[in-house]
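Entry, Tuesday afternoon. Goal for today is a structural model of the target with zinc ion bound, before we commit to ordering more compound. Inputs were pasted exactly as handed over by J.K., no edits. I checked the ligand SMILES twice against the vendor sheet because last time a stereocentre got dropped in transcription.
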Amino acid sequence: MKQDIENKLIGKNTRPTSMRILVYDFLSSQEAAMSLSEIENHFDHADRTTIYRTLKTFEEKGIVHGIQENATTKYKLCHDGCNENTHKDWHLHFYCKICQQTTCKEDISFPENMRTDFRIDEIRLFAKGICENCLESLQ
Ligand SMILES: [Zn+2]
Ligand SMILES: [Zn+2]
Ligand SMILES: [Zn+2]
């Protein structure tokens, strides 16, 4: 597992420090996107600045993408297609009003190979509603 993460980080031109490995491991174990404070709470003893810097590096290197949600940003791991030049996370992000979790809905996405005369640097698709788990418990 640790070796896997090291290889992923190296593959994205990022030196696998122990903090980076820990943060990557935590994010990969989560179904939902995590905010800085949620990540912080998970690592009681880690320094806030270190975690913040880790996330910023990850974002620059195409390892995580940030999802803007009101005043906070949540982070979710990217796919192999993202790198330090481009992010290709052109899928829907879904916020559940009941469990307050934000998830990536990869099957609903913008076509990546779309040809345009203009250049797209960023696409944000964001929806709010009730997720499949919460819908089920409502019945
Ligand atoms: Zn990405
Ligand atoms: Zn929910
Ligand atoms: Zn996403």
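The first strand starts at residue 34 and ends at 35.
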